[in-house]
Structures are given as C-alpha cells and as structure tokens.
Specification:
Elements (H helix, E strand, L loop, with lengths): L2 H14 L58 H19 L2
C-alpha cells in the first residue's frame, strides 16, 4: 500500500538480510488511510489562472505536471510523537 514502506523492506532484505516475506518483529508507525488523488485547483478554470510552474522547472510545466506526494505540515510531528510513545511504553514495561 505504501511505496516508501516497500522501498524500506527491499533495503532491509538486501542490506541486512531481514526476511521480509513474513512479519519481522520490527515496529513501524504507519497510517491505514488510503492515498487520495489531488484535486484540481479551483482557479484552474478556462478563464482563470492555470499554471503555477516556473518555465525553467525540470519537473513541471504547464503541459505536464508530475504529482508530488505531500502531507499537511503537522502530520510528520504526529507520527514522531506516536513513535516516541511506542518507545516510552516499551521502556516503561521493560520490553
């Protein structure tokens, strides 16, 4: 479901020999929320402003737009706090 997690599993298998075909015992904090396609900007209308890309940009042009996956600014800190909570619980329980 997550391309980043897929790359991490490949790296663990290739570099460290971790068997990734079954549960590994490695704890991960992740979301089960499905990926959503971005919506068109509301000002991308026939008569409105339709290009926000600089002309010298290698990744985007008005004719071709690459999708950049992103998130709301606070999401990274929420995941960090969840990961910290997992560590604190494990330390407090002695596992």
């Amino acid at each position: 479901m997550d391309p980043f997690a897929k790359d991490i599993r490949k790296l663990l298998k290739r570099k460290y020999g971790v068997p990734t075909e079954r549960p590994t015992g490695i704890t991960a904090v992740y979301s089960i929320e499905q990926r959503r396609q971005p919506l068109s900007l509301r000002y991308d209308a026939d008569d409105g402003f339709s290009c926000v890309c600089p002309n010298d940009n290698d990744f985007h042009s008005c004719e071709h737009r690459n999708q950049i996956d992103g998130s709301v600014a606070f999401v990274t800190s929420v995941f960090g706090m969840n990961a910290a909570g997992v560590v604190v619980r494990r330390l407090s329980l002695g596992r």
